[in-house]
């Protein structure tokens, strides 16, 4: 009986430990209304889609409430978070960038462009693309949040299929000439010091062998021979 | 004057080449054993000047210094081979990887060592373990320094492939241990060195993200530059360890190979006979498969686990690294523990006990792997991963409790093949379950566990006529001498070539113990291969 109780306790413990705990799910994207109109341009080129370079180009983003909406929807709108999001082409075969309807698990939008208080119009931000943005195709999305930071609505500069107005961003390589030089120098040091060591030890070995051969040739007076010599 | 035909050298020693009369030599050998410089050895030694104890806290030359140089070099190589995985979230963005690219690189990172491990044995035999280790570690240093320069997928895969050649330092490590430590203690020395070397896979998961973090925040470098700079750490470690091994290391207790005169009474075997007896023994292949699912699983997990925690549980890079490193750190005690458990079981139940213990430990490893894939919660995942790591690594240790008994003649080749099998298992697993977007990482881990259970069950097929198998008792007519003697032909046996094998057969009957190993004089050709990583 005691062992049955222990077994039950262990089973319950394991069950509790491995139970799939439901994480508090976030808002589902499919429930959000597209109430904002968002426009994004590569500032220097004044185009809505094109090629931008990190660290050099900036994105000019503007957003406002869709004026054609009839009912008043923005009574709870508190702030707006504007994000840079991956286009589908940059998500293929990259599970860590997957789109998930649950916004807490969604990885579509890695970079935040700006967070501003909500205003129905006159919103504008210029964002210099930082150097840690990976290369790929992007679009811009803005989420409207309430005072509890829960998403209420959104807007994006592309269509629902995410095929238009995509911006291609060219990243930095991360390589610097100093890194290249240091790498080459240290590699050479490794190989050269190894070869020097091997050479030095081979030469030393040859020297000792030569000396031994010499001594063998001449003949060494061993201790016994010495003793013999002394006693006789 | 000097009697040229009375050159005396006791086995492989560093004794002077000068001709010395035999009775004078005998007088010298009975005096206290001294090292090259005439000082007494810090540890008690046997007649070959191999240490009889292992003092882990000591750095005394030559035995303990060799031990520490050996395991630290091996750990450095594991460190650099598995340095990219914890930084993968940054590297994959910098070089625009897809999942297939990452998996190909991971496969490359365990492929190179297959070739190099097979070659390293010969190099150690010819040039000595000191040169073998130092040459390998310093020649792979440029490969590590190439990592900061990589700009494309192909480049990354090539660099990981070449860095993985360094894992052959395990062979030189084991060879060196066997040259320095007496047969009674060499098993423990080998197992500890192998386990502590494998810890490099854990240390790197912890240290690389921290170094990356330091470079980013303290020096203000961009992410895509910081990870490149972080790779200078393993590169410099390679160079430093290589130089230390060259300057402080010593091949044998009495000196280096170059200074030695090999004695003429070493039994030399032919490669093709040794190879033939190794590959035609079916047990070699069974253990190649099973080792592929203990070491192979360990190598695979080293490659994927940091990214798994980063992506699945949304922890930051450093946290993912810390969690992933605990997997590798279990090696500190788990691997030697596996060998010790195998040994203790053998005292009571002999070889049958060893096989059962190995099957149980490795199967439990498979079970916990399946559970890990099914666990959705962070804390539970970490707990399961720790339990899983203990079983997997203990299985590696327990495998090498059996391997020395498979064959005496071909021990080196068999150990090399089985070790390579570990890498092949890792390649197979990564290609099957982690290369495409078909399976998510958690499904891949679960399937890896299922495959472990399936492949471990081939252990039931192992049968030693003199000891039995898992399900069948021994054949009472076959003795150990028959089993080991059968590897030699009639002519070879009558020529006395099999004497070393017979000696081992007698020893194996006495205890069948993991701790008892053949010393160099009994099997000089491949004496280095008695335990592995």
TrEMBL record, chain A:
Residues 1-25 form the signal peptide. Keywords: Membrane, Signal, Transmembrane, Transmembrane helix. GO terms for cellular component: plasma membrane. GO terms for molecular function: nitrate transmembrane transporter activity. The keyword NAD does not apply. The chain crosses the membrane at residues 181-200. One of its GO terms (biological process) is response to nitrate. The keyword Transmembrane applies. This is High-affinity nitrate transporter. It comes from Marchantia polymorpha subsp. ruderalis.
TrEMBL record, chain B:
The chain crosses the membrane at residues 64-82, 131-150, 156-177, 226-248, 315-334, 355-376, 382-406, 413-433, 445-464. GO terms for biological process: nitrate assimilation. It is found in: Membrane. PROSITE patterns: MFS (PS50850). Its main location: membrane. It comes from the Eukaryota. Keywords: Membrane, Nitrate assimilation, Transmembrane, Transmembrane helix. Residues 66-466 form the Major facilitator superfamily (MFS) profile domain. GO terms for cellular component: membrane. It is a multi-pass membrane protein. One of its GO terms (molecular function) is nitrate transmembrane transporter activity. CDD domains: MFS_NRT2_like. Residues 1-20 are annotated as: Disordered. InterPro entries: MFS, MFS_dom, MFS_trans_sf, NO3_transporter. Belongs to the major facilitator superfamily. Nitrate/nitrite porter (TC 2.A.1.8) family. PANTHER family: HIGH-AFFINITY NITRATE TRANSPORTER 2.3. This is Major facilitator superfamily (MFS) profile domain-containing protein.
């Amino acid at each position: 009986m005691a062992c049955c109780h222990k077994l039950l306790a262990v089973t319950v413990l394991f069950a509790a430990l491995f139970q799939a705990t439901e994480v508090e799910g976030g808002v589902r994207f499919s429930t959000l209304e597209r109430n904002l109109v968002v426009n994004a341009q590569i500032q220097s080129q004044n185009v809505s889609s094109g090629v931008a370079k990190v660290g050099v180009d900036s994105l000019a983003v503007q957003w406002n409430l869709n004026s054609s909406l009839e009912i008043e929807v923005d009574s709870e709108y508190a702030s707006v978070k504007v994000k840079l999001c991956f286009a589908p082409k940059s998500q293929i075969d990259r599970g860590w960038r997957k789109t998930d309807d649950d916004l807490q698990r969604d990885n579509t939008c890695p970079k935040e462009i700006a967070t501003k208080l909500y205003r129905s119009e006159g919103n504008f931000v210029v964002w210099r693309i930082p150097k840690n943005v990976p290369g790929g195709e992007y679009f811009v999305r803005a989420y409207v949040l309430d005072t509890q930071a829960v998403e209420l609505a959104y807007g994006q500069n592309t269509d629902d299929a995410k095929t238009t107005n995509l911006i291609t961003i060219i990243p930095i390589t991360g390589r610097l000439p100093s890194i290249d030089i240091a790498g080459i120098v240290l590699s050479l040091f490794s190989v050269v010091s190894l070869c020097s060591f091997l050479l030095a030890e081979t030469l030393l070995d040859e020297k000792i062998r030569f000396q031994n051969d010499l001594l063998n040739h001449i003949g060494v007076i061993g201790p016994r021979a010495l003793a013999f010599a002394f006693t006789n | 004057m000097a009697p040229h035909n009375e050159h005396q050298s006791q086995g492989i020693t560093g004794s002077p080449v000068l001709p010395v009369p035999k009775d004078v030599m005998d007088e010298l050998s009975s005096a206290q054993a001294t090292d090259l410089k005439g000082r007494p050895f810090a540890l008690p030694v046997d007649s070959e000047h191999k240490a009889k104890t292992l003092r882990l806290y000591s750095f005394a030359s030559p035995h303990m210094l060799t031990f520490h140089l050996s395991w630290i070099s091996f750990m450095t190589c594991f460190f650099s081979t598995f340095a990219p995985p914890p930084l993968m979230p940054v590297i994959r963005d910098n070089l625009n990887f897809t999942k297939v690219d990452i998996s190909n690189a991971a496969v490359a990172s365990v492929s190179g060592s297959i070739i190099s491990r097979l070659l390293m044995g010969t190099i150690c035999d010819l040039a000595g373990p000191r040169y073998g280790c130092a040459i390998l570690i310093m020649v792979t240093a440029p490969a590590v320094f190439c990592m900061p320069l990589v700009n494309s997928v192909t480049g990354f895969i090539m660099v990981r492939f070449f860095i993985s050649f360094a894992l052959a330092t395990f062979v030189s490590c084991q060879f060196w241990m066997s040259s320095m430590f007496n047969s009674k203690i060499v098993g423990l020395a080998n197992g500890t060195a192998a386990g502590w070397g494998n810890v490099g896979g854990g240390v790197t998961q912890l240290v690389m993200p921290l170094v990356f973090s330091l470079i980013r925040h303290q020096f203000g470098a961009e992410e895509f530059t910081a990870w490149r700079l972080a790779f200078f750490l393993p590169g410099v470690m390679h160079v430093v360890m290589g130089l230390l091994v060259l300057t402080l290391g010593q091949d044998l207790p009495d000196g280096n190979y170059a200074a030695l005169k090999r004695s003429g009474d070493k039994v030399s075997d032919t490669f093709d006979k040794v190879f033939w007896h190794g590959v035609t023994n079916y047990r070699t292949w069974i253990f190649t498969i099973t080792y592929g699912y203990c070491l192979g699983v360990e190598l695979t997990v080293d490659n994927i686990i940091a990214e798994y925690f980063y992506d699945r549980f949304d922890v930051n890079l450093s946290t993912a690294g810390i969690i992933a490193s605990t997997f590798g750190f279990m090696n500190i005690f788990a691997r030697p523990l596996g060998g010790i458990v195998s040994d203790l079981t053998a005292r009571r139940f002999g070889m049958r006990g060893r096989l059962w213990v190995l099957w149980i430990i490795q199967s439990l490893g498979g079970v916990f792997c399946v559970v890990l894939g099914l666990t959705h919660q962070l804390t539970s995942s970490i707990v399961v991963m720790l339990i899983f790591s203990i079983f997997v690594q203990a299985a590696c240790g327990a495998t090498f409790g059996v391997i020395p008994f498979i064959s005496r003649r071909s021990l080196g080749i068999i150990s090399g093949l089985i070790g390579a099998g570990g890498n092949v298992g890792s390649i197979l697993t990564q290609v099957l379950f982690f290369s495409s977007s078909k399976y998510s990482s958690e499904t891949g881990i679960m399937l890896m566990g299922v495959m472990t259970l399936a492949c471990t069950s081939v252990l039931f097929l192992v049968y030693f006529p003199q000891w039995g198998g898992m399900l069948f008792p021994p054949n009472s007519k076959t003795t150990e001498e028959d089993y080991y003697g059968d590897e030699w032909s009639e002519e070879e046996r009558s020529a006395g070539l099999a004497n070393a094998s017979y000696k081992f057969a007698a020893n194996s009957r006495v205890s069948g113990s993991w701790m008892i190993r053949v010393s160099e004089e009994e099997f000089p050709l491949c004496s280095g291969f008695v335990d592995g990583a």
